[in-house]
Design a protein that fits this description.
Blueprint lengths: L3 E3 L9 E4 L5 E14 H7 L1 E4 L6 E7 L2 E6 L3 E6 L7 E7 L6 E4 L2 E6 L2 E6 L7 E6 L19 E3 L8 E14 L18 E2 L5 E4 L2 E5 L3 E6 L7 E7 L4 E7 L2 E6 L2 E6 L7 E7 L7 E4 L2 E6 L11 E6 L7 E7 L6 E4 L2 E5 L5 E5 L7 E6 L6 E4 L4 E5 L2 E8 L2 E9 L2
């Protein structure tokens, strides 16, 4: 059965009206049509391939001497970074529907639509697929391709979540007779070795547990046995959930409506502690000491137009409160290294703040002509991904010094 959902809540859509000779009125609607592919075919296509050009760079992750760059919805590029001045691509992990990874003790964990897949990367030149856990995630939100253009209704075709994945969308126009406007709407002391992701991460390893968020739920996997992922928990945490960050015994979860704090002293039973709400906007968050730093990006599908960098006092985890806000133009990822705060403002440059006084940030440098998506500050260098280019910088007293610029294509 074909499934069609009519939407009336989108702000970025225009109706066009027409009449025929009998004065019947019509409107033009844009239809988003689901492109389907069988789950069996998708799962069979997962493979380790030779290196190839990148299509659209997404999130970045580092582990020991290697960098992993997500190619949105396609897989992961593996880069040898033992010589940061001259990084080299090694291979490509073809993982349809992939956006995030984590690594612990040479096991790489990656999402593939509703599945969780595991690779052994102990021999970086001979990566192998270890296991696959099927349908562990909900079949909505991050588990299907995103609709990227304005639309008025959705045609799911013959979509059956037990048989197919939505891998893409096409768009078409239809003429519909106007009846009325009341449309149906949709509303590490253990010695473990882990890696480090950026501020847009949806995967986070804490000790021997892997936490994963999708648009509404938090999933918990016990990964204490190498090469396995035993799901030990799942709980709803809200709606429009986007990012996850860990500091000590707390998870900080960014959503389009605020930041939520969960206590994970009991690793398998996260306990809601508090939240701080804000107007709707895309929301990555990082934490250092008694302060959380988050960016809110308005416009597009993220909500209202205002964009800011916000500083939040979290000394009392049960009562977080906003300290200050700094106007931005189009903020994306951010990261922290000691007294420095790095914030991408999209095409408006890469901003570096002195946060020695978190309640009064001082902008000390803006690196122009770079459109950073996300950033990872490491101990000895900073990594940034921007428009299919991996930038690496060393820290200097007065800011950053470019170490290398690697075009992944």
């Amino acid at each position: 059965m074909k499934k069609i959902i009519f939407l009336s809540f989108l702000s970025v859509f225009t109706l066009f009206f027409s009449c025929n000779d009998d004065d019947t009125r019509f409107e033009t609607r844009i239809v988003a049509n689901a492109v389907l592919e069988s789950k069996d075919a998708i799962r069979a296509s997962i493979a380790v391939e030779s290196e190839r050009p990148i299509n659209e760079s997404g999130k970045i992750f580092t582990y020991t001497n290697y960098v992993f760059v997500n190619d949105r919805n396609l897989g992961v590029h593996v880069i040898d970074n033992r010589n940061p001045e001259n990084p080299q691509k090694i291979s490509f992990l073809k993982i349809p529907g992939n956006f995030d990874i984590e690594v612990r003790n040479d096991i790489l964990y990656a999402d593939s639509y509703t599945d969780l897949v595991l690779f052994n990367i102990a021999d970086i030149d001979n990566i192998t697929l270890v296991d696959r856990y099927e349908d562990v995630f909900n079949d909505f939100g991050f588990a299907q391709a995103a609709i990227t253009e304005p639309f008025d209704q959705i045609d799911y075709g013959n979509y059956n979540s037990s048989e197919s994945f939505i891998v893409d969308w096409t768009y078409s126009e239809i003429q519909v007779e106007i009846q009325n406007f009341d449309l149906e709407t949709t509303d590490s002391a253990s010695g473990d070795v882990t890696g480090q992701g950026g501020s847009f991460a949806r995967f986070k390893i804490v000790d021997s547990y892997l936490y994963i968020i999708d648009i509404a739920d938090l999933y918990i996997f016990d990964i204490s046995v190498a090469g396995t992922a035993n799901q030990v928990g799942q709980q709803g945490v809200g709606w429009q959930i986007e990012t996850i960050f860990n500091r000590d015994d707390y998870l900080y979860i960014g959503s389009q409506n605020g930041m939520l704090i969960y206590n994970i002293e009991n690793r398998t039973q996260p306990l809601y502690t508090s939240e701080i709400s804000h107007w709707e906007g895309c929301d990555p968050v990082v934490v250092d000491g008694d302060y959380a730093y988050l960016t809110l990006r308005g416009g597009n599908t993220c909500g209202q137009d205002l964009s800011i960098l916000e500083v939040i006092n979290i000394e009392d985890k049960s009562n977080p409160y906003s300290i200050d806000q700094y106007e931005m133009q189009e903020p994306y990822g951010l990261g922290i290294k000691e007294d420095l705060l790095f914030v991408s403002d999209g095409p408006n440059g890469f901003h570096i703040y002195d946060k020695s006084n978190p309640e009064e940030l001082v902008l000390i440098e803006v690196i122009e002509d770079i459109n950073v998506f996300d950033v990872i500050p490491l101990e000895d260098k900073l990594l940034a991904i921007a428009d299919n280019v991996l930038y690496q910088y060393t820290y200097e007293e007065d800011g950053l010094s470019l170490l290398s610029e690697y075009v992944i294509n």
